[in-house]
């Protein structure tokens, strides 16, 4: 009998969500047997799948399931083609994903990017730029900043200065709002993560222009004094985007506001091989033993390749590994999944996004075959 039981809400969502989720569950089932713990995995609709099933991107039953679960394994949501059919606030990105992040207070988003040596040729950078390699943890604030500040789109009507004719135009407002408490808690996550790594935090901001950025820099600098063993440096976000492509090996932990982290993590993912390989963990407050979290690939629904068995399931599989590590404390099992992914890549298995024509001893495979190769490597 296994001593550990965990409840997982599996929300596959839209686009490639269902097919990559299937592979992640396949891998979890193998891990479960091997490391003797029990997973109660319940699938529920979210996103457009939720709208089709229950008229809501986050159906009540799905939210209830999440509340009863120990963690959420999330696929991806959003189908831009269908967007015009419903108001913005009801669309899956806001009504399901952002809602879940906020509902569960998941303020800390961890996105580990690592370029496996076998994929060096896939990296868009010239080899001499890679230095000691790419191994970056993007720590993204996830429940504040530009995503969550007051927003509106208004119709403005005014009289033209000279002709006095009325004219109207639309005006859109998004606001970047952050409190020092919100900066502190995400900075703690970054410094603590750095202690498990190479002990360096690069804090990203736009302190030369934004009020947010100035406060961010001040608060992070102060808090950094509590971590004298971790080197802290500050970088403007525009420079950060440039430094990533010039000399990515300088980065260990990148600490970012919500929007900056969204953008830089995609850039970092491309350097790490493919967005299809970037997992993420969204965490809230840590309880004594177990931490509730939402685990999802950082990439989107990729509607253009959905349902064709060509999507890369690795980001979803690695997200499941992060869940075992952070929410269930099953570190050994998490490491086993991560090394199984490494073995499948080393053995030459490549989905289309990481396949290079002419490369010796590699084989282009589909979503399912990649999942099988990872499961077999376990
Ligand atoms: C991500 C995604 C989401 C985000 C979208 C789908 C709303 O791009 O997780 O990075 O912007 O946070
Ligand atoms: Mg993104």
List the defining traits of the structure above.
378 residues; alpha/beta; Rossmann fold; ten-stranded mixed sheet; two-stranded antiparallel ribbon; 21% strand; binds 3-isopropylmalic acid; binds magnesium ion
Write structural notes for this entry.
The chain is α/β, with parallel strands linked by helices and 378 residues long. A ten-stranded mixed beta sheet has the order 2-1-3-12-11-4-5-10-8-9, sandwiched between helices. The protein has a two-stranded antiparallel ribbon with strand order 6-7. The protein has a two-stranded parallel ribbon with strand order 13-14. It folds into two domains: 219 residues, Isopropylmalate Dehydrogenase, CATH 3.40.718.10; 121 residues, Rossmann fold. The chain contains eleven helices and 14 strands. Magnesium ion binds next to helix 8. The site of 3-isopropylmalic acid has 6 residues, from helix 4.
